[in-house]
Write a structure and sequence with these properties.
The complex is a heterotrimer of chains A (290), B (284) and C (262). Chain A is of the alpha/beta class. Chain A contains eleven helices and ten strands. A six-stranded mixed sheet of chain A has the order 6-7-8-3-9-10, sandwiched between helices. With 262 residues, chain C is mainly alpha-helical. Classes of the chains: A alpha/beta (290), B alpha/beta (284), C mainly alpha (262). Bound molecules: adenosine-5'-diphosphate (ADP) (2 copies) and magnesium ion (2 copies).
Chain lengths: 290, 284, 262
């Protein structure tokens, strides 16, 4: 079964002129890590909010096409019902953490679902452990660092035991190391817990290696859906969505176009090192003209 | 007309001597920071979240006063000057544009600063128009700031600081939330401000930006300066970068790994890397 | 920021462990006593008792000082000013033109000051020993609707954040040369528009995401919501409750049934 299946989906926000999403069809398998890449205005947030029914239930507009999560039609179920299937993490860490302690934040969702008390304790401990916030139960969410806040938001979603996690640019304000730590955490969720992850992002640098599949979006349309290895075959993929390519891959493309007689295909640092060290010294040396 | 600030490189704009700062809550955000910034520099202050970048910036224009040590702005002790006075020399552009926009039109927003400084309507208006042109948003003059995109709102806030004609502009994470195109357009405008002679202090944790634009880098970690060097020097010490929760651009890592084939270790951008290789190898 | 608003100090005392419902009732009863009592000695005894309890909260000196500073000032003010306005009774101790200071007025002033002292300080026993979270839980347990309790909790949670944002907005405007405490009153109040508008915009934005976030976490999904932390009345809480009731009932009965002068 698909974790998410969208067919022919278009959406226009109430009062807006253009389409925020324009005839989108895409599917995500269970346990798959999918990254949606696109510049601002590409439609990532809209796509995210469709996947747990916030659109059309909480945000008004004209929706066409069908969106199903684990077989359930989002327009026929409430956001609360869908919350046990899809966990949602928003872009701004501050306004999605509204409880007075870390523990309450995580328990909030399951409490609403009337999960029995002893199970609540188990879930809270499980979720905090998973995101690396164990032992901070009594802290106020407001006092956590940016990275910890995003982890807490993830834990709060996980505690409802969803089968898919949707995250809208959760790393946008994090420092580079914080960003990678977050990606690694998400990857471990798919690997260890079979969770499907749908991540919206606008930075290609570190995310491709973590993804099973990449969706390229531009102004409300999906241009390509493919595994990273395929996306990394043609630099035009990135130009089309106005997202800079990973730098190492960019170097390979630039070298191929500037130097004759080479056809580099490296996409990672290790590959680049190996290919360059083996190929470059055998290239004809230019007369040291300076 | 905004008088063009001269870029007399020998002129010392900011001088900090052994500055420490502790917040009321007892958080020691900066420890013994000493630095000198000259006129016309393009300096990047980098460091992970919570390393003290914003605190350092607020000390430079008097929003915070040091708990210890001394600060001189343009040669004069900062402590004897009010924030309003300091803001004529050191402009500080906040991270979040929504923390300052409140007027009904972009022009009012940009004229707010000059008016506060007691500048006449006529000149305020001239400054506003010039600042809007510098940020490439003259056409938004009569729009409401609240109807603009984040990228446009950020430019409005920068223009509103520019209109106070400070010699030094501090930009606190100006590209956060922008996409690549928006960010490179903004950086091009900021470079022009620098080319006109203004001193630019860019606060960021995007090392690609730093590699492309800055001349000098100060790395902050846990409230103290780990490194203060020219931009190439800053990228050559990978350990220091990691220790401060930063990552060098991949090209720098690659260059250092393959330096055995005779290319320099401290390449900063893809273009530099490709140029360096194609200068040495391959027929035309 | 936080320290100023949140008076709670984490300690492990009897008062901290006490069921917050009992604490709320105790504080209510003690303030009622303050109202009922009209004589100096009983009121003074009550004040001493409250101060003893406050001492037992083991709050930090700075918090206690912050909290009690205002109360003390108020008490001194009442003691000093009362005789100036209440000129009835004899003997007259001093007279200066139309103003005369009488002995009963001095006693009445002192009594009022102590009563105000009781009423104002008794709440700190609750605030020093109970987290905002437990207060809200207790109120919900005592019959407040869960939605209202949640709304209250969320407001309390966001007060420091909001305060922090306002500080940041003020700084952003100061960096544009705005001087808040300069100029006429009208000028000064106008200055605050530059803070008010961004703050309102911020609040509205926060509220919007907040609402989406609540829905995404199944808010209102079921009527039979469970609670991870339940407040339970233990035997020690029950005993305390009995003591609290007696403490209130005995003086009240003495006064209203037997006409004791307290
Ligand atoms: N609440 C809204 N009302 C009207 N238009 C909106 C709203 N939110 C987004 N849009 C528009 O929908 C398009 C897609 O936006 P969004 O999904 O937010 O993109 P992204 O998250 O990739 O930046 C944009 O053109 C944007 O202007
Ligand atoms: N108003 C404040 N009160 C108390 N601590 C603060 C305040 N502002 C910042 N801090 C703390 O000071 C340190 C440095 O913060 P900041 O200068 O904002 O870092 P950066 O801008 O590098 O992210 C952090 O530990 C932060 O939590
Ligand atoms: Mg978005
Ligand atoms: Mg900062």
């Amino acid at each position: 079964m698909y974790a998410l299946k969208m067919s022919g989906v278009s959406f226009v926000y109430e009062g807006a002129e253009g389409h925020a999403l324009d005839d989108i069809s895409v599917s995500i398998d269970e346990g798959e890590f999918v990254t949606v890449l696109g510049a601002n205005g590409a439609g990532k947030t809209t796509l995210a909010m469709l996947s747990n029914g916030l659109i059309p239930h909480a945000i008004k507009g004209t929706l066409e096409g069908s969106v199903k999560v684990f077989g359930y039609d989002i327009s026929k179920h409430t956001v609360a019902q869908l919350s046990t299937l899809v966990g949602m993490v928003f872009q701004e860490p501050e306004s999605q953490l509204f409880c007075m302690s870390v523990e309450e934040e995580v328990a909030f969702g399951p409490e609403n679902l009337a999960i029995p008390r002893d199970e609540l304790f188990k879930r809270v401990e499980w979720a905090l452990d998973l995101v690396g916030l164990k032992g901070l139960n009594e802290r106020s969410p407001a006092t956590l660092s940016g990275g910890q806040k995003q982890r807490l938001a993830i834990a709060a979603a996980l505690a409802m035991r969803p089968k898919m996690l949707v995250l809208d640019e959760p790393a946008y304000a994090l420092d580079p190391v914080g960003r990678i730590e977050l990606y690694a955490l998400l990857r471990s969720l798919t690997e260890k817990h079979g969770m499907a992850v749908l991540l919206m992002d606008r930075d290609s640098e570190n995310i491709l290696e973590f993804s099973d599949k990449v969706v390229l979006m531009n102004s409300g349309r999906i241009l390509t859906v493919a595994p990273p290895s395929e996306i990394l075959r043609d630099i035009r993929n990135f130009r089309a969505i106005r997202v800079p390519p990973p730098q190492i891959f960019e170097i390979a493309s630039l070298l191929n176009s500037r130097l004759t007689g080479v056809d580099f295909s490296f996409t990672t640092l290790d590959e680049a090192e190996a290919e360059l060290l083996s190929r470059v010294p055998s290239l004809p040396r230019r007369g040291d003209t300076r | 007309m905004i008088p063009k600030p001269g870029a007399d490189r020998s002129k010392r704009m900011i001088e900090m001597d052994n500055v420490g700062f502790t917040y009321e809550a007892g958080v020691e955000a900066l420890r013994s920071v000493s630095l000198k910034i000259s006129s016309g520099e393009f300096l990047a202050i980098v460091g992970g979240n919570g390393s003290g970048k914003t605190t350092l910036a607020k000390l430079m224009n008097g929003l915070l006063r040091p708990s210890s040590g001394s600060i001189k702005i343009s040669g004069a002790p900062a402590e004897s000057q009010s924030i309003a006075e300091l803001s004529k020399t050191v402009g500080y552009c906040f991270q979040n544009p929504d923390h300052q926009l409140f007027c009904t039109s972009v022009e009012d927003e940009v004229m707010f600063g000059p008016k506060n400084l007691g500048i006449g309507l006529e000149e305020s208006r001239e400054r506003m128009e010039r600042a809007l042109s510098l940020m490439g948003i003259f056409s938004l003059k009569t729009m409401s700031p609240f109807s603009l995109s984040l990228s446009e709102r950020r430019r409005v806030t920068i223009a509103s600081i520019l209109a106070m004609t400070p010699q030094v502009m501090i930009l606190d994470e100006p590209t956060t939330g922008l996409d690549a195109d928006e960010s490179s357009e903004l950086m091009a405008l900021i470079r022009k401000l620098n080319a006109d002679g203004r001193t630019i202090i860019l606060i960021t944790h995007e090392m690609k930006l730093v590699a492309e634009h800055a001349d000098r880098v100060i790395i902050l970690s846990d409230g103290h300066i780990l490194l203060d060097s020219d931009v190439r020097g800053a990228f050559s010490d990978l350990e220091i970068l990691k220790a401060s929760r930063l990552l060098p651009p991949p090209v720098t890592l690659l260059a250092s790994r393959i330096s055995s084939i005779g290319i320099s270790r401290d390449l900063l951008t893809s273009d530099e890397f490709v140029f360096e290789l194609s200068r040495r190898y391959g027929s035309r | 920021m936080k320290g100023v608003f949140d008076l709670y100090t984490a300690r492990d005392t009897f008062l901290h462990r006490l069921d917050p419902r009992v604490k709320i009732l105790a504080v209510l009863f003690l303030s009622l006593l303050g109202f009922i009592m009209t004589n100096l000695i009983p009121l003074f005894t009550l004040l001493c008792f409250i101060i003893l309890l406050l001492y037992l909260t083991r709050s930090t000196f700075s918090k206690a000082y912050f909290a009690l500073k205002f109360v003390l000032r108020l008490m001194v003010l009442i003691t000093v000013l009362w005789p100036l306005f209440d000129q009835s009774g004899t003997p007259v101790l001093a007279a200066l033109g139309p103003i005369k200071i009488t002995e009963p007025a001095i006693w009445r002033g002192l009594t009022s000051a102590i009563r105000i002292g009781c009423l104002a300080t008794v709440w700190y026993i609750l605030m020093f020993t109970t987290t905002q979270r437990d207060l809200v839980r207790a109120l919900v347990k005592m019959g407040l609707r869960y939605d209202f309790g949640l709304a209250l909790a969320i407001s309390l949670r966001f007060i420091p954040t909001f305060g922090f944002t306002i500080e940041s907005i003020k700084d952003a405007q100061r960096a544009r040369g705005l001087e808040f405490d300069k100029g006429s009153i009208i000028r000064r109040s106008k200055n605050y528009i530059a803070v008010l508008i961004p703050a309102v915009v911020y609040a509205l934005r926060t509220a919007e995401t907040l609402s989406l976030s609540l829905q995404s976490r199944a808010y209102g999904a079921r009527k039979d919501r469970t609670y991870m932390r339940e407040i339970r009345m233990r035997s020690s809480d029950l005993v305390s409750l009995v003591i609290v009731v007696l403490l209130f009932a005995i003086p009240a009965v003495a006064k209203f049934v037997f006409g004791a002068a307290i």
